[in-house]
Amino acid sequence: MGVRSINAGGYAVHIGAGLRHEFAARIAASAPAHTYAVITDDNVGPHYAAPLIDALGAHGTVSSHLVTAGEENKTRTSWARLTDELLDAGCARDTTVVALGGGVVGDLAGFVAATFMRGVPVVQCPTSLLAMIDASLGGKTGVDTHAGKNLVGAFHAPAAVLADVEVLATLPLEQRRSGLAEAIKHGIIADAAYLASIDERIDALVAGDAGATLDVVARSVEIKVTVVNADVRERGQRKTLNFGHTLGHAIEQATGYALLHGECVAIGMVLEAMLAERIGVAASGTVREITRILERAGLPTKYPATLSAADVLKATRHDKKTRAGTVEYALPMRVGAMAENNGAWSVAVGDADVRAVLV
Amino acid sequence: MGVRSINAGGYAVHIGAGLRHEFAARIAASAPAHTYAVITDDNVGPHYAAPLIDALGAHGTVSSHLVTAGEENKTRTSWARLTDELLDAGCARDTTVVALGGGVVGDLAGFVAATFMRGVPVVQCPTSLLAMIDASLGGKTGVDTHAGKNLVGAFHAPAAVLADVEVLATLPLEQRRSGLAEAIKHGIIADAAYLASIDERIDALVAGDAGATLDVVARSVEIKVTVVNADVRERGQRKTLNFGHTLGHAIEQATGYALLHGECVAIGMVLEAMLAERIGVAASGTVREITRILERAGLPTKYPATLSAADVLKATRHDKKTRAGTVEYALPMRVGAMAENNGAWSVAVGDADVRAVLV
Q1: Which of A8, A347, B67, B288 sits a CA distance of 20 to 30 A from A66?
Q2: 3-state DSSP call for residue A35?
Q3: What pLDDT, on the 0 to 100 scale, is given for residue A234?
Q4: What percent of chain B has a predicted confidence (pLDDT) above 70?
C-alpha cells in the first residue's frame, strides 16, 4: 500500500501499514536529538514501546516514561511527574519527545514537550484511529482540570506525525468505532462525498481493515490539516472542527469520562445538528442523515438517561468556546458544509434552545 | 519626561513616570477583553493593585489573584492554583491576564496566560527595575522545579509592557542594585558607551532617580528587544543575554535563592568574564572593568564562601544551556562585545576551567 505523506504545513504526516518498523529512523530524521524521551501508556507500551526504544538507541540516548491509560490521567499531576522524570533522565533542550499512544498520550506528551525548557520537539506516533485523524494533528496539546477538558495547554506543532494503520487491528472494537466518529465529522463539516465513501465501507472500517482505514486516515488528515492551516489560532474556520464537541465535551465531563470521546462526539453531533435545525441554520433532514451513519458505525446517538439537561448545560459553562457569557456552537448547514456566519464559523446559542434539544 | 514607546516587534513597551495612572486604559487598548485577571503579589498588591482594579472595571469584569512574593513561590503549584482561580472566576478565552509585579509575578502570570485555554493575552506591568528591563520582555515565561530555575515554561509574547519608573523609588535599595546588574549586563554585551553612561550616573540610579532611571530603562529595553528580535527562539545571538546567568543561576539555586537574582548575575558575570579571559576569549582587563562598575553599584562580585565549587558545578548540570553533556557559556570578548563563535554566540567550556575560576 506504500506510505502516504501529507504536508501539514511545517511538518509532515506519514501514514502506512507497518510504518512502525520505520518510526525510529523517521523520528531521528525529522527531529534529530541527543536524547529521545518516549512517552507511552500501559496499554500501548507493552505492544510497541520496546522495539521503538531499541531502534532509537542507534540515534541517541533513550529514556522511556509510562503513564496509566485513560483520560482521567491527563492531568497537571501526570504532566509534572513526566517533566520531572525527563529532568531526572538528563533530558535538556536537545531532547525530542516521542508520543506513542492514543489521544491522551499525545495531548499529555505534547504538553510536556511544549513546556519542557520552554519547548522541545515532539514527534506524534498515534496508535488509535482517533489520535491519527484528530488529536495528533494541529498542535493542540493540553491536560484536563476539575473544571473541564483541555482547559490548560499550549499550541505546539509536532515535528512529524507517524501513523501505522496496522496497529488499529489490535484496538478494541469500540475504540475503532469511536475514531470513526471523528472521520464522520470530517465528512459532515467538509466533504459529503467522503462521508458517502465512509458509509459504503463502514463494515470494513469497523473491522479495522488496513486498506480501507489507510484511505480514511489519509482523507481525514487532509481535511483536518487544510482547516487547521487556514486558521491555526482558531479565530474562525478551525472552529468547524469543534462540531459535536461543545455538547460532546459537556457530556464527557458530566459522565465523568465514562464514555469514549468519540461516543460523546457522536451524541454531541446529533444534538448540535438538532440545535442547528431548530434555530434554522441546518436544512431539514440533516439530523436524520447524521444519525443514520452514526448508527451504522455502531455509535450512540442519544445522551445517557442518567444525565439531566441541567448537568449538560452546566458542563458547557467552562467550555473554551464560551465568549461573553453565551455558548458558541459550530453548526452544519447540511452534510458537507458548515455555517460560516460572516467569518465567525460559530453561532451563539442561548440556553433555552439547548435545553429544548436535551429533552 | 513624557512617555517613551519602543516597538518590541509585535508589541509595544511604554515607559513613563506616573504611567500607572494610564495602565487600565492602555491594557484595554492593547488587549481588549471581556474579563481582566490581575495577578500580583503581597508586596506590590497593597501599593498598586486597588487603583488598577478600579480603573479596569470601566473596561470589563475584573478578578484579582494574589501570590506570595518570592522566587520560591514561582512553582507549578502556584501556577495550577492561579489557573484554577481564573477558572473559578469565570475567565475564558476572552480574558486578558495582567501581571502586576516583579519578575516572579511576570514569569508566573505569563505562564498562566500562555497555558490558559492554550493561550490568552498577557499585559506585563513590571514594578521592579529587573522586570522592566529583562523579565517582562521577550516572551519567556515559566516556573522553577526542584531541578532548577525556569525549567518549565513557554514562549508567550506580551500584548504590551507598561513600566512606571516612579514605582521604583519605593523599592528596597538592594532591589534597585539588583536591577542595575542587568542594565550593566546590557552595556557589557552590546554597548560600551551605554555602560559608561551608567557608570557616570551610578549614584542617581542607585537612589532611584526617575529621570536617570527612565533613560536606563529605555536604553536597556532597546538593547534587549533588538537582541531578542534577532533571534526569538534563542538559537544564536539571544544567548548573549545569558551572560552571567549560567553560573549566576547555578549560584542562585545552590544558595536556595537566598541572594537576589541580580546579585547572582553580578557574581556570575565576574566569574564568566574570568572564564573568558582564562580560555583566551576575552581581552585582558575585561574582568577588572566589569568588577569595578559592579562594585560602584554596590553589587557583590565574589561567590558566597558557604558554597563549594562542586556545589556550583553540580547546579550547572540542569541548566537549559547544557548541550550534549558540556556546558555552554555566552562570553564577552571585551566590554561592549560578545564572542560570536561562528554564529553560535556561546562557547562550550569544560568543568576543569570552570573549577579553576571557582577557587
Answers
A1: A8
A2: strand
A3: 82
A4: 97
Look at B116 and A152 and tell me if their CB atoms are within 8 Å: yes
Are the Cβ atoms of A323 and B87 closer than 8 angstroms? no
* Opening angle at CA B323, ends B321 and B325, nearest 5: 120
Any A CB within 8 A of B147 CB: yes
Q: Is B179 on the interface with A (CB under 8 A)?
A: no
Let me know if A234 is a catalytic residue.
Answer: yes
The last residue of one of the domains, among A133, A152, A169, is: A169
Q: Are A29 and A11 members of one domain?
A: yes
Would the pLDDT of B37 be above 90? yes
Higher pLDDT pick, A332 / B138: A332
pTM: 0.88
Residues A349 and A276 in one domain: yes
Q: Which residue of A has its CA nearest to B91?
A: A318
Is A238 designated active site?
A: yes
CATH number of the domain residue A326 falls in:
1.20.1090.10
Say yes or no: B163 and B281 in one domain: no
List pLDDT tens digits, range A142-157.
999 998 889 999 999 9
- Give the CATH number of the domain where residue A101 resides: 3.40.50.1970
Of A169, A192, A208, which marks where a domain is finished? A169
Instruction: Examine the residue annotation and report whether A317 is marked as an active-site residue of this protein.
Output: no
Domain that holds residue A339: 172-357
> What mean pLDDT comes out for the span A124-152?
94
- Verify whether residue A182 is a known catalytic residue: yes
Please choose, from the candidates A336, A131, A132, A100, the residue with its C-alpha nearest in 3D space to the C-alpha of residue A218.
A132
Task: Look at B84 and A153 and tell me if their CB atoms are within 8 Å.
Answer: no
Query: Which residue among B76, B116, B322 places its CB closest to the CB of A92?
Result: B322
- Which runs of consecutive H residues, i.e. helices, occur in chain B? 23-30, 45-56, 76-88, 103-115, 129-130, 173-190, 192-200, 202-207, 210-230, 245-254, 261-278, 286-296, 309-316, 351-357
The arithmetic mean of pLDDT across residues A184-196, rounded, is 98
SS3 label, residue B69: coil
Residue pairs between chains A and B whose CB atoms are closer than 8 Å: 97
Examine the domain organization and report whether B287 and B164 are in the same domain. Answer: no
The interface pTM score, or ipTM, of the predicted complex is 0.86
| Same-domain status, B81 and B224 | no
Contact state of B324 with A146 under an 8 Å Cβ cutoff: no
A85 vs B contacts (CB less than 8 Å): none
Q: How far apart are CA B152 and CA A117, in angstroms?
A: 5
Residues in chain B: 359
Q: Based on the domain organization, do B221 and B342 belong to the same domain?
A: yes
The string of pLDDT tens digits covering residues A272-311 is 999 999 999 999 999 999 999 999 999 999 988 889 988 8
Closest by Cα among B222, B226, B267, B259 to B243? B267
| B318 alpha-carbon distance from chain centroid | 19
Instruction: Indicate the range of A27-36, A93-102, B306-315 predicted with least confidence.
Output: B306-315
Chain A contact present for B242, CB below 8 A: no
A235 and A318 in a single domain? The answer is: yes
Residue A209 is predicted with a pLDDT of 92
Structurally, how many domains does chain A consist of?
Answer: 2
User: pLDDT digits over A93-106, tens only?
Assistant: 999 999 999 999 99
